[in-house]
Backbone:
């Protein structure tokens, strides 16, 4: 009887460990999300307290605080919408619409949605879109949103950014290359359940800066891509340790 147990354990453990790892990741995702939402909430509470305690210098400042509270509330709703959309995709309430997607069209669309922000932040931004049809099987809306989110977050932390493809016999990778160390970004993703957020700082944060953190942007990509037939990877290119490749990887369709 006992001779069969090690074999059974060996067969079950990898899948069990993978499931446990996924559950820990999702628990961390939830913990990080709660911290992200505290920032706009604290902004609204702080500004409301100033108004209620008659600490404004006059009607103009009071109106300014009310406007900031409204903007923080709208930012919070945007965070809720994005997180809720990922959750609905994850549990299958709004399943992915998988279909052939031509990257020679999708990458220029992503460039159009992000190039102005890159110019405003003085980031050297290059996009190498394929000139010939290259198809993958995925959900075009979710892939485009994921790429735009990764690029917009990266633009705030880099001086140069590139978007291009890497292809081999089995896979096609859409690569966002930036000049941040891969170890730093991997730590942002790994430390989801322990966000480095200062409650005092978040309570006075400018509403204009309320957005998903880098860690949550990366986690959203890691959660989303397997649901649209891909996977997410953070890697260092072989030529540099000071650059990072954020890869959205998909299997190459059968010919």
Residues:
């Amino acid at each position: 009887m006992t001779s069969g147990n090690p074999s059974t354990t060996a067969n079950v453990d990898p899948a069990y460990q993978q499931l446990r790892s996924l559950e820990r990741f999702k628990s961390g995702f939830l913990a990080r999300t709660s911290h992200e939402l505290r920032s706009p909430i604290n902004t609204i509470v702080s500004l409301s307290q100033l108004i209620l305690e008659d600490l404004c210098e006059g009607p103009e400042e009071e109106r300014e605080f009310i406007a900031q509270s409204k903007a923080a509330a709208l930012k919070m709703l945007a965070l809720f919408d994005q997180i809720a959309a990922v959750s609905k995709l994850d549990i299958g309430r709004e399943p992915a619409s998988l279909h052939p997607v031509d990257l020679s069209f999708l990458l220029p669309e992503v460039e159009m949605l992000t190039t102005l922000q890159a110019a405003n932040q003085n980031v050297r931004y290059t996009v190498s879109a394929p000139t010939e049809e290259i198809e993958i099987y995925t959900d075009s809306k979710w892939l485009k949103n994921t790429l735009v989110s990764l690029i917009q977050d990266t633009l705030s932390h880099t001086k140069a950014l590139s978007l291009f493809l890497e292809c081999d016999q089995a896979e096609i990778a859409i690569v966002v290359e930036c000049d941040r160390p891969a170890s730093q970004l991997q730590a942002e993703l790994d430390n989801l359940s322990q966000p480095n957020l200062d409650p005092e700082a978040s309570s006075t944060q400018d509403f204009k800066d309320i957005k998903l953190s880098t860690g949550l942007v990366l986690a959203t990509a890691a959660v989303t891509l397997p649901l649209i037939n891909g996977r997410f990877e953070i890697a260092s290119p072989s030529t540099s340790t000071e650059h990072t490749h954020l890869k959205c990887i998909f299997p190459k369709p059968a010919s």
Notes: Helices lie at 4-52, 59-91, 103-120, 140-155, 182-190, 199-203, 214-224. Residues 195-207 have pLDDT under 50 and may be disordered.
